[in-house]
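Researcher: Can you fold this with flavin-adenine dinucleotide in place?
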Amino acid sequence: NSAKGAHLEVPSEAFHPKKGGYKHLPVVTRYLDNSIHEKETKPKLVVIGSGWGAVSILDKLEKDDYDVVLISDTNYFLFTPLLPSATVGTLEMRSLLEPIRKIAARVHAHYLQARAMDVDFESKMVEVQDPHSGENFYVPYDKLVIAVGATSMTHGVEGLENTCQLKTINDAIKIRRVVLENLEKASLPTTSCEERKRLLSFVVCGGGPTGVEFAAELFDILNEDLVKWFPKVLREDISVTIIQSRDHILNTFDSSISAYAEKKFERENLNVVVNARVERINENTVAYSIKNKADSENPTRHEIPYGFCLWSTGISMTPFAENISQKLEAQKHSRALITDGNLRLKGIPDGSVYAIGDCATIENPKLTAHIMDILQEADKNNDGSLTYDEFKAAIQYIRRKFPLTSNHISKLSDLFVKYDFDKSGTLEMDELRVMLNDLDKKTTNLPATAQVANQQGKYLGKSLSKIAKASKVGTSSEQVVEPFSYHHLGTLAYIGNTAVGEFNWGFKMIGGLWALYLWRSVYWSEQVSLRTRVNLSIDWTKRAIWGRDLSAI
Ligand code: FAD
């Protein structure tokens, strides 16, 4: 119970109102430089995380409104959209990272490289763990933002310890090493033909943007560098397989885009297995089953040997977010932390806690109601039904305007498929309403993307500054802050020396060299610093001149 150093204080009795509910831990009230919380004139803002959401808050928060403390176990910001390029050496790891201290300095935030373990909402304290000593301490807050991201979804599949994930820079470092080591092992004369084929079988579980981009990057290195630098490895011994549970890869994109990607992969002998469910990852094989259309009870079972397997099948809550959701009655049984339209955590009556990014979901944004309004408007002659052309045009408009979830997409495409059988008929509005109605009851709405986390962080940074200023003159936050609204700008994916994408003004980008440069330009311009911009430009140039670095370190 001893307070170590001048910056830590032992909590007074006032801090443990509930018997046994509060641990006797040191409370940080002053920091080493004594600059924060010293005079305690400003409200204390604690932000947990150093990813897209947290960094965007710091970007928009005004300097002197809060004493800010940033808590994250990683002391850098990672530019995730380009992470697949780092797994094969197209880009260097350091080009994707920006030290969080440099970003935090803008608002004079105090950064603690530590892990948030728990929150005592009653006493307004975050329990934090020193990763070196394992000791816990408390950081007090007036406003708290939870931006802890998410972890990979397991779907209850056994054997995931045999796979790699792609979420952190350490994952990318590990993947790069395993891929290159497999190539080296496959080149040894002592390696049997069968073992060589296994080592060179790369399996990607999940056909979403991350899985597809990784497979495309892998394919690039195998085609461009391997042929040149590994003459003993035969091209036909190498295989890349994507196993996807839906009927298409990139299924959240427009169907013309996923069809283009599938055709491109087919031409290049990159195997895409759809409607498949991974059942188990054995030490050397992936076991999966494929839906049998004629007999849905009896799927066909397959097993494929692998030397490397990536698991990229969606996200779920981090242990910290799960702990928070278990503590609050209003959050129980949810898949992410539920917030109101102002991104305030549900179940905290004074509205002092916010959750943003991948760890959060906004309650009931009435997306389906908006969709219904658009379909209603599409009904030109107002007779309660839509013709095929009206329906098609409305759906295209909806796809451009809203970031639809897979739930919405599958419902709408069910309708579309059903309707396509009878183009001469009309679709009754009532039928549409019934089919879409139950979606409104669900909370999942915005996709888990950097774009959403970034917009939420910027909104919250501005809102928190407005709230700080309003509270000085006694105005309530409700009067100064509008609810968050998301503006979907579009989505992009790299598919191997080219890219695909759709933008909200209706423009689709499907392949070609120019698409590659547009894709690069978008991410180049989104960088958080000039240093990373210069690094990216150098990496792309180096790769064009000398190829990728093939050292397995
Ligand atoms: P994150 O960016 O994941 O940040 C979470 C932070 O919280 C991390 O710093 C973590 O260290 C910290 N943290 C977690 N738990 C704790 C704790 N208990 N205590 C302290 N700190 C903690 N999105 C796009 O829009 N476009 C893309 O092209 C795209 N490509 C992607 C490619 C890959 C390979 C991946 C993995 C993701 C991609 N995404 C993309 C998704 C995007 O990265 C996420 O949606 C985004 O990072 C979410 O931001 P966030 O702030 O919620 O979480």
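Model: Folded with flavin-adenine dinucleotide in place. The mean pLDDT is 85.
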